[in-house]
């Protein structure tokens, strides 16, 4: 196949960008002593929001990490619920490729992680193979319990002290399990304080081996809801019988803080008109007593985060004491976001709105700019490739993400010349749960038809969220004009608000491109997830949405290409219910050849 001049130029630009970024990462990974590989500390909170200003209430995290590191402004999780998100983070794979799509069996949780063969194929195992000592304390996965913690043991850790179900979310009655020992109950002690002691202990243990770099994962449960449970397994429709949700419980020393704090009163907070699609659009506006309770729920979340803030402060005191800061990278993020009141939603996650998928990511370390805000699009599947690159370990061909540039120069090149992808694949299967109070007799704790595939795309002059639900309802938000996602441009009730043109072309033209891009991404593997436009256009002459809007591609996108759809709503990833698949039903742009005819 002969490439056009444009394609050759584009390929050369991408190659030079990748080589420059690779060189930057190698310099980063070498650490301040040249050949000595860096230590890596990864702090992973649970359900921490970006859009309700939680970081404004953590001044010690601001002091030690944000002001001294780079804040990645456009970072996303790919599945907005704990276990699937964590599995994607540690494997570098989308949930449709891990097939861990829920928090509990049969579709998710630790047993599903094991049955999919992932206990031998995730980050700590690869880091050990690269010569790292690895340590972890806190929550690893859901359905990792006091009964199955040794069936089998979680692989890849030199030292571990895991939070275990059914006590994972019980702030004052947690159970931890250290190395190959039996679980220990910490009834009456605050779980984050227990965790802090364990984290500092593992740091001391790592320092006993100065000849080996270390990775330390720290995963506090805050600010997740407090959950009292007998079991977290079984039929999700029976969850109200098995568990009790309450607001998070802060440490006693923090219980009085922020008495006047309330959920930010943004335009989409408990709006007067419905928004969204499917079950979300049927929600009722919340009465004043409901809003008041949710404000209390919010205060409890930011109070619970104070223990995490103190944990970080103690961690940095020890890093400074042992002169480790010059050769240690610190990552701070969360598994997924959270909503309280936005779009009339009760406290929870599992939706595709910005509150649930757009989350904090902050990185501090040698060569990382202090106080920098990066605009590049990043996601959780990019983190395992990033950490392996810092560790000087080989990448993996089956990663669905790519390493994040951390240097000033690497970020500027990725921001300035299109050398990095502009999209995030968002996907969800199964239920949505209300974690606050139920205020109406017709409200349900569990909503079962919450399966959808979605796309976030941010580029020069555009900022869209596009989704297809399992009942085949569609959503489109133009976040440049509608940052709070109040107007679903694909809902019949919003027809009067649909613009005739977007990006200078007819509205329908943009929809067809977004749908085709999602068609590729909803079942992509490896580099196809990173460079989906090149899959649609193998000649290499389309690198972004703007390129794809060329009129010469109209027939390909608007007439030839199949559309994203579902044949059935499922609680997990059931391929035959997922509708047409690009690998068997899609086309590439080359005289209309089918995908299977091209390859």
TrEMBL record:
<keyword id="KW-0732">Signal</keyword>
<dbReference type="InterPro" id="IPR024607">
    <property type="entry name" value="Sulfatase_CS"/>
</dbReference>
<dbReference type="InterPro" id="IPR012083">
    <property type="entry name" value="Arylsulfatase"/>
</dbReference>
<keyword id="KW-0325">Glycoprotein</keyword>
<feature type="modified residue" description="3-oxoalanine (Cys)">
    <location>
        <position position="82"/>
    </location>
</feature>
<dbReference type="Pfam" id="PF00884">
    <property type="entry name" value="Sulfatase"/>
</dbReference>
<feature type="signal peptide">
    <location>
        <begin position="1"/>
        <end position="20"/>
    </location>
</feature>
<dbReference type="GO" id="GO:0005539">
    <property type="term" value="F:glycosaminoglycan binding"/>
</dbReference>
<dbReference type="GO" id="GO:0004065">
    <property type="term" value="F:arylsulfatase activity"/>
</dbReference>
<dbReference type="GO" id="GO:0008449">
    <property type="term" value="F:N-acetylglucosamine-6-sulfatase activity"/>
</dbReference>
<feature type="domain" description="Sulfatase N-terminal">
    <location>
        <begin position="38"/>
        <end position="393"/>
    </location>
</feature>
<comment type="similarity">
    <text>Belongs to the sulfatase family.</text>
</comment>
<keyword id="KW-0378">Hydrolase</keyword>
<dbReference type="InterPro" id="IPR000917">
    <property type="entry name" value="Sulfatase_N"/>
</dbReference>
<dbReference type="GO" id="GO:0018958">
    <property type="term" value="P:phenol-containing compound metabolic process"/>
</dbReference>
<protein>
    <recommendedName>
        <fullName>Arylsulfatase</fullName>
        <ecNumber>3.1.6.1</ecNumber>
    </recommendedName>
</protein>
<dbReference type="InterPro" id="IPR017850">
    <property type="entry name" value="Alkaline_phosphatase_core_sf"/>
</dbReference>
């Amino acid at each position: 196949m002969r490439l056009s001049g444009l394609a050759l130029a584009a390929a050369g630009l991408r190659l030079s960008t990748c080589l420059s970024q690779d060189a930057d990462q190698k310099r980063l990974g070498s650490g301040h002593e040249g050949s000595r590989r860096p230590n890596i500390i990864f702090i992973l909170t649970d359900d921490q929001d970006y859009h309700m200003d939680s970081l404004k209430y953590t001044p010690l995290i601001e002091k030690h990490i944000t002001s001294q590191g780079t804040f990645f402004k456009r970072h996303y999780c790919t599945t907005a619920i704990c276990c699937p998100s964590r599995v994607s983070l540690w494997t570098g794979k989308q949930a449709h490729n891990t097939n861990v799509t829920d928090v509990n069996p049969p579709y998710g949780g630790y047993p599903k992680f094991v049955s999919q063969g992932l206990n031998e194929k995730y980050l700590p195992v690869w880091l050990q193979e690269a010569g790292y000592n690895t340590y972890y304390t806190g929550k690893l996965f859901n359905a990792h319990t006091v009964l199955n913690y040794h069936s089998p043991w979680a692989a890849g850790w030199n030292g571990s002290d895991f939070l275990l179900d059914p006590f994972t979310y019980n702030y004052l009655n947690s159970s931890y399990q250290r190395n190959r020992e039996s679980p220990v109950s910490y009834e009456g002690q605050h779980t984050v304080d227990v965790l802090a002691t364990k984290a500092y202990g593992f740091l001391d243990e790592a320092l006993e081996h100065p000849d080996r770099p270390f990775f330390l994962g720290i995963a506090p449960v805050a600010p997740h809801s407090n959950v009292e449970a007998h079991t977290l397994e079984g039929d999700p429709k029976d969850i109200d019988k098995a568990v009790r949700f309450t607001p998070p419980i802060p440490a006693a020393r923090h219980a009085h803080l922020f008495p006047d704090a309330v959920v930010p009163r943004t335009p989409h907070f408990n709006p007067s008109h419905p928004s969204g699609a499917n079950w979300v659009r049927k929600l009722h506006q919340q009465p004043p007593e409901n809003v008041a309770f949710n404000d209390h729920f919010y205060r409890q979340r930011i109070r619970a985060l104070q223990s995490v803030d103190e944990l970080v402060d103690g961690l940095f005191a020890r890093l400074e004491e042992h002169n480790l800061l010059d050769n240690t990278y610190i990552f701070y993020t969360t598994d997924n976001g959270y909503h309280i009141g936005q779009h009339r939603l009760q406290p929870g996650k599992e939706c595709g709105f910005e509150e649930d998928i757009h989350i904090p990511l902050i990185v501090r370390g040698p060569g990382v700019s202090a106080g920098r805000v990066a605009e590049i699009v990043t996601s959780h599947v990019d983190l395992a490739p990033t950490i392996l690159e810092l560790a000087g370990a080989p990448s993996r061909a089956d990663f669905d993400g790519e390493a994040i540039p951390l240097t000033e120069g690497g970020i500027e090149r990725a921001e300035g010349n299109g050398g990095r992808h502009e999209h995030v694949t968002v996907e969800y299967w199964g239920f949505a749960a209300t974690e606050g109070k139920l205020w109406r007799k017709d409200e349900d704790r569990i909503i079962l038809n919450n399966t959808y595939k979605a796309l976030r795309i941010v580029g020069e002059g555009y900022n869209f969220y596009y989704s297809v639900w399992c009942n085949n309802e569609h959503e489109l938000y133009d976040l440049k004009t509608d940052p709070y996602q109040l107007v679903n441009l694909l809902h019949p009730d919003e027809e009067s608000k649909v613009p005739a043109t977007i990006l200078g072309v007819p509205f329908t033209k943009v929809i067809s491109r977004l749908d085709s891009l999602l068609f590729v991404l909803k079942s992509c593997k490896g580099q196809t997830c990173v460079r989906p436009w090149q899959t649609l256009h193998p000649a290499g002459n389309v690198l972004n949405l703007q390129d794809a809007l060329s009129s010469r591609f109209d027939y390909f996108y608007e007439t030839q290409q199949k559309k994203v759809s579902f044949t059935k709503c499922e609680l997990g990833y059931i391929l035959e219910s997922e509708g047409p698949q690009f690998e068997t039903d899609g086309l590439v742009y080359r005289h209309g050849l089918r995908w299977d005819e091209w390859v």
